[in-house]
Design goal:
The protein is α+β, with helices and mostly antiparallel strands. It contains 7 helices and 8 strands. Strands 1-5-4-3-2-6-7-8 form an 8-stranded antiparallel β-barrel. The chain starts with a strand and ends with a helix. About 25% of the residues are buried.
Length: about 230
């Protein structure tokens, strides 16, 4: 699994009719990710005053978030991924380190990062020293992922959950929904241009990109009550 990413990310909220058409085009032109369909669980880190997400939803030129991610429900021997996700002028940069779930159960996050002597580890240590953050919210969803030529990657997310309490990775289906069950969030990630077959289906079904953050949406709905 890669530890660094740099790519454009476009997001689209699809109704079921749009999803059916887009999914057919994706199935015909792309391959399933080796992991197929899977559960994604995240803990997002923020300050006591929610400074990180408050800054993010103001749509600044540069923003970054820290999150802990796992795939599936962690068991003994599972890996966790600590990620810094940055966005600058529309380009997303993601950097992450991997460590066993046992380390997270027995060590503080700062200590785990300090033990990683890579450039990414030093960058995360700087972030943690600069921001007084702790785990604030849980976000989970089910994902179907596809890969194509020239680094193209498309994912479909459903069954999203958000909660502020019970910040563990062992209860994936607890919490409030981030977006309705009859909608599908599609993310298109590419290093180059969008292929013409995708341009055609987006145009035909009148699908437009949106600005959307699962963490940001959950924060506004359930923390702010907006």
């Amino acid at each position: 699994m890669e530890n660094t990413f740099k790519r454009h990310e476009l997001k689209y909220m699809l109704n079921r009719e749009q999803y059916k058409a887009v999914r057919a085009a994706v199935d015909a032109n792309m391959d399933k990710d080796p992991n197929g369909e899977y559960l994604v669980q995240n803990l997002y880190y923020d300050t006591d005053n929610w400074d990180i997400i408050r800054h993010s939803i103001e749509k600044p030129v540069f923003k970054e978030k820290l999150r802990l991610r796992c795939y599936g429900v962690p068991q003994n021997g599972s890996d966790l991924f600590l990620e810094i996700k940055k966005k600058h002028e529309g380009i997303v940069y993601k950097r992450r380190i991997k460590f066993p779930v046992e380390a997270f159960a027995n060590m503080e996050l700062h200590d785990i990062v300090k033990e990683n002597h890579s450039q990414i580890g030093r960058e995360m240590n700087f972030y943690l020293n600069a921001h007084s953050v702790r785990a604030r919210v849980f976000v989970s969803y089910h994902r179907a992922a596809f890969v194509g030529q020239s680094g193209l990657r498309i994912t479909f997310d459903t069954d999203s959950h958000f909660r502020e309490d019970e910040l563990s990775l062992g209860c994936p289906n607890q919490g409030e929904e981030i977006f309705p069950q009859d909608m599908v969030l599609m993310e298109l990630k590419t290093n180059k241009s969008i292929p013409m077959w995708m341009v055609n289906i987006l145009s035909e079904k009148k699908i437009r990109p949106i600005s959307f953050s699962k963490y940001g949406t959950g924060y506004k709905k359930y923390i702010l009550g907006a």
